[in-house]
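Hi there. Long-time user, first ticket. I'm pasting a complex I've been working with (about 838 residues overall). I'd like to know whether the download I got is complete or cut off, because the file seemed smaller than I expected. Thanks.
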Amino acid sequence: MLDTQTPPLMIATMAAEARRAAGQLARLSTEQRRAGLRAAADALRAATTEILAANVADMARGQANGLSPALLDRLHLDDQRVAAMADGVATVATLADPVGQVIDTATRPNGLVLTRVRVPIGVIGIIYESRPNVSADAAALCVMSGNAAILRGGSEAVESNAAIHRAFTAGLAAAGVPPQAVQRVATTDRAAVGAMLAAEGAIDMIVPRGGKGLVARVQAEARVPVLAHLDGINHIFVHASADPTMATRIVVNAKMRRTGVCGAMETLLIDTAYPDPLALIEALQAAGCAVRGDERTRALISVAPADDSDWDTEYLDAICSVALVEGLDGALAHIARHSSGHTDAIVAADEAIADRFLAEVDSAIVLWNASTQFADGGEFGLGAEIGIATGRLHARGPVALEGLTTYKWIGRGTGQVRG
Amino acid sequence: MLDTQTPPLMIATMAAEARRAAGQLARLSTEQRRAGLRAAADALRAATTEILAANVADMARGQANGLSPALLDRLHLDDQRVAAMADGVATVATLADPVGQVIDTATRPNGLVLTRVRVPIGVIGIIYESRPNVSADAAALCVMSGNAAILRGGSEAVESNAAIHRAFTAGLAAAGVPPQAVQRVATTDRAAVGAMLAAEGAIDMIVPRGGKGLVARVQAEARVPVLAHLDGINHIFVHASADPTMATRIVVNAKMRRTGVCGAMETLLIDTAYPDPLALIEALQAAGCAVRGDERTRALISVAPADDSDWDTEYLDAICSVALVEGLDGALAHIARHSSGHTDAIVAADEAIADRFLAEVDSAIVLWNASTQFADGGEFGLGAEIGIATGRLHARGPVALEGLTTYKWIGRGTGQVRG
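Hi, the file is complete. Here it is re-exported in full:
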């Protein structure tokens, strides 16, 4: 039984099975992978009763263990949520297939024809917390891109995840897609996470999905490359030239539409030459946002002081730090010092100023005259995202199917030898 | 003085300086970066006397320390080698600039215009051994792609590297390119390498250039992402359908043209249905190659036995392991087990067989009817390479300027907020 193996041996065994399945998956046609996902979606719908029963057990245990209402809400499934999960899988089945895409091709002077072709990465580990839908979402993205997945969900969702995994892989199998392509770590032993993080060469990439604590642990411990973002300390700079109505609308939306998403604005930078900074601050307050200001802000309006740590804090709440800065250069300096490299925006009518901001702010996503809440794979037209990455290698910003591929060089010759 | 700092503090200070310079570099125009490299090439030429004098000192110390003739040859510089180094830098200045290239662009239904644009990675660490020319080659590739470089060469080349670095950065400065963009770790303390490998967040990527011992240490210790290959255990499979003349020419070239390069063939797999296996083996022997065979090979010809370790050995020498395999499936199974994921080739007239090989062999480079010795950025038309990568993320195969970039998402709106 798996549970009697040591975690490293268990993960090695799973990863080897996943690697074999990935090889088979990579040789399936696009239509075969699509059919597998449609069948998985159908199987999830057909298993709604079992999935909800499993979720009832998880919820009962969670309540007994005193999970917070927020955690219980993330854990909770109902008919609509299961249907949405199945719909999500079916939607992934409709996305453009990156596998086999030709990135570029060239004929060398010696006649060798070189082509760079996208291929799956191989084996992707997904480590997540209480949301059971990640089991289906992440598995669907991996299978569509020809990768095998090793799923390790949170212990609080163990029954729900097991039921989802069972239905999903049964669907794959029914459509002739190897069910071993989606592996689930059944044990709730935290050492299994450590074994995944250490599985260099066996797991090609780890995607953590969850809170900052999880991401920080994964980033600190992993020997396997990690695709993630730790923080979304996102700024909006309102330049002197900004249209005041637009600026207010964008700032309020960026902060208050949903405060708990990684694309939410956390710090508002207002140009000292902006005509009406008070209107921005009062609009945030009117929307229910607590404002913490630097000294110059507090000279304008009585708000709580922002201390040094505020500029490096992702509130994920109805709280906003506000600083007045000297023009674009002041904003660039603040952002260079405090941005987490996720999403930063400028509101300005002056296009030359905006272009400098877009060029010089070194973040995964830079926006002009738009809300930071657009930082999302779906909004970017990628269909669905496996996550948002703030690292500088491989993939950056919202990562979807393309980010789950690598490439190989294929050379076709007619007997060429090197001189 | 730098040498009195602890290695981590020294590297942190250098990396911070490099980061600032990278920001300036990224804002220079293509032509300004090209001009900087042309000036660096000129400065190297003008400093030939000093560089050679420094090299004489390194060579004398190397001889006194009993370095091997092969190492001394790598260390040695003369007029031609300095001229070639300068020419190499000038050539990099002519390559297509990846910075600012638009990868793709799309207008979203809400009017937001999204563009993915290539940008430099930031700060690249180069850790290398006795070849002093790497100082100039790697620095040129980094500067052309808008990155700052931190160079850490081998202790045996310390004087040569210092002279090259002095000339190179003086050239940059003369052309208005910040010389801080190319930092050199002056100390020969090996702890400096450890500090570079641990400098997560401060150094964005490490490229080791040197022997397997160096690469293995870097891969084992690094917390910073590493772009490298450890081994080039490259196979050629000669299929039953191969043209015998072509097969012999390719096999001999792949093994014997240069035996010490990472693209050299190490294992020859011959289809049991290939009509004349002896001709292939005898051609290798005639070219001076020692052949080690599996049992089936030794039933045909008296050669040394290949033991289990041979299939996992990169000889980098005039030695070749030979196995007879059962058709394409036999070859695929052998390669899946023993390939290092670098370069593998098939010789076949049967295109369907070749296509299966190209699709199913999971290596960075797969070739049909061509010598594995083409595994090289120059031969691939990339101009010059920083290295060859066998990892699966970011860049794979020969890595040149494009592999030294990442991208950012730029969104241009007209006041869009998310619903």
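A couple of notes from our side: The longest helix of chain A spans residues 7-27. Chain A has 14 helices and 16 strands.
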